[in-house]
Amino acid sequence: MRIPLLSLLMLVSTGCQPKSKSDKPEVAQKGQEDTLMETSLTADQLKGYETAYFASGCFWCVEAIFESVKGVKEVYSGYSGGTEKNPTYKEVSYGKTTHAEAVEVYYDPKIVSFAQLVQVFFGSHDPTSLNRQGPDRGAQYRSIAFYKDEAQKKIITDYIAQLEAENIYGRPIVTEVKKFDKFYRAEEYHQDYEKRNPNNTYIQNVSVPRLNRFKENFKSYLKKESH
Predict the structure, then answer these.
(1) Which of 25, 42, 97, 119 is close enough to 84 for a disulfide, judged by CB 3.0 to 4.6 Å?
(2) Residue 173 in contact with residue 206, Cβ under 8 Å?
């Protein structure tokens, strides 16, 4: 299957800056967090949607990108791709596990297809950068496209072959194509982090610019409120 290529703007600087050991993530102000929790879908509501899993750097940035895509109902930040059970943010972000920061995407396949989500994934980070996204370094920030069955695997590998055949990036793609096993949801303060912390300097200087670059190239994929 040939998937139409979108106009991709790939910059090394699209990754999130590393969180230093002294950083303490800001939490939502009272009232803002309550509103976010009220608008979240329940587990029963989410049962009606398909799921897809991706890793492409800091999950704060990746979550915000997928949440802007029409047909996507919910996105959670978490950890996947490794073998350790119940990893924590401190363990993963310090490179003490084999997991990567990842996202779980709930989507309506009648509105957005898995193939289109794969396009979003490749169009919103640098898949030629090994164990790094921008200034974020380490295997915990590696690029992974997860698949749940052979049909999804073919969609991913065919798209990679197409990107490389047309030399979109000018360098070999190093994205892992990995069978999905387990997703561990991150701590609550990481969920909707960008929305909860709009005044955070990290969000303003790194996450928002990355999101805006994505929006500029994928205008037809955006929810109306994301324009």
Answers:
(1) 97
(2) no
The pLDDT assigned to 150 comes to: 98
Task: Identify the active-site residue in 58, 61, 203, 206.
Answer: 58
Structural element, H or E, at residue 177: strand 176-179
Q: What is the pLDDT of residues 56-71, one digit of tens each?
A: 999 999 999 999 999 9
Letter for the amino acid at 168? I
Q: What average pLDDT does the structure give for the chain?
A: 86
Domain-by-domain residue ranges, the chain? 42-222
Q: Tell me which CATH homologous superfamily contains domain 42-222.
A: Peptide methionine sulphoxide reductase MsrA (3.30.1060.10)
- In angstroms, the CA 88 to CA 102 distance is 13
- Rounded Cα–Cα distance for residues 95 and 49 (Å): 32
Query: What is the pTM (predicted TM-score) of this model?
Result: 0.85
